[in-house]
Amino acid sequence: MSETKFDLAAYMSDGIREFMAAAYRNVLSNPREARFVHQMRRVVEKSERKRREVLEKEGLAVPPFLIASIATTCNLHCKGCYARSNGIAEDDASQQKATLTPEQWRTIMAEAAELGVNFTLLAGGEPMMRRDVIEAVASVKEMIFPVFTNGTLIGPTYIDLIKRNLNIIPVISIEGTAMGTDERRGRGVFERAMLSMDMLKQEDLIFGASITVTSENMELVTSPQFIDTLREKRCRLLFYIEYVPTEKGTEHLALDDEQVARMASTVLQRRNEYSDIIFFSFPGDEKATGGCIASGRGFFHIGPDGSAEPCPFSPFSDSNVLEIGVKEALRSPLFRTLRDASILGWAHTGGCTLYEHRDEVEEIIKNKQ
Ligand code: SF4
Hints:
Helix content: 40-55%
Shape: globular
CATH class: Alpha Beta
Number of domains: 1
Number of strands: 9
Strand order of the largest sheet: 3-4-5-6-7
Order of helices and strands: HHEHHEHEHEHHEHHEHEHEEHHHH
Strand content: 5-15%
CATH architecture: Alpha-Beta Barrel
Bound molecules: iron/sulfur cluster
Distance between the termini: 25 Å
Largest sheet: 5 strands, parallel
């Protein structure tokens, strides 16, 4: 896999420019959001220049987005929760990872924005349990923060925070139908998530939905009937996240190669059919990106304690952004080894090659020490 042939940075920058153009078209009827998106389009262009400068001057590819797990707790106990299985979310306070302060997160995000990072997906645990952090990072106006939430904590005070900080964009996780969602996430969660969508619609605020795609719900969650229900709520972003079987005995829920290919073509078709919804598919078309985009290739993950990890599904780290900053974390021996190794292009079942090849990743780390 030679990065020179395929220019991932340009591919992702094009994707972001298209995303911003589509976002702008979708909010033209709403002056407040249109003004915000218009401003952000300029910021995105400036950030792209910054990333190009760092690449030209220092030979370092800065990814356009990051994922940050800011919370170590959650008010739900979903079946197959990856955050609980890899130790990000924990009920027992004595076992919980150390967490950063709101000011520490704000500093990290400010440095990332200065490098040209445009988006940081806030996750957890339940990120809305760290309102103090969300309020602090929202002040970094050159950055957009999609907040991947279970949607059960959105009420008047969060609506007020989002109205004052349009760069905070809730992305509400559901499993498809009420039955599917409540079966995995708990009784009444679907209804509460729909109520949150209604509140955001009422205030004409941009929001999205995130769906974990399994071999059992793929047809349903990519169907026009299902997408129409979200469109009616005025959902503007739709994230399809391929299921990663972190829980033993759930391997059958992972998409096989035929389903992955069908998913890719269906998403392409939906993109053409729904101009007012922006579709993301994760890990998406790895064939187009030359393999997995973790380890700083397209993004990397910052754990609750600041540890720099390849991806939320790959909790390995040899550096901490609080200590060395985002730029030096991108140069970490682990990230460089994984980017240079062929592992990111290895075949895998389920949404994560690093998770599937975690033994090999561990071996690489051991050999580096
Ligand atoms: S809402 Fe997210 S973090 Fe919380 S239990 Fe469910 S999957 Fe895990």
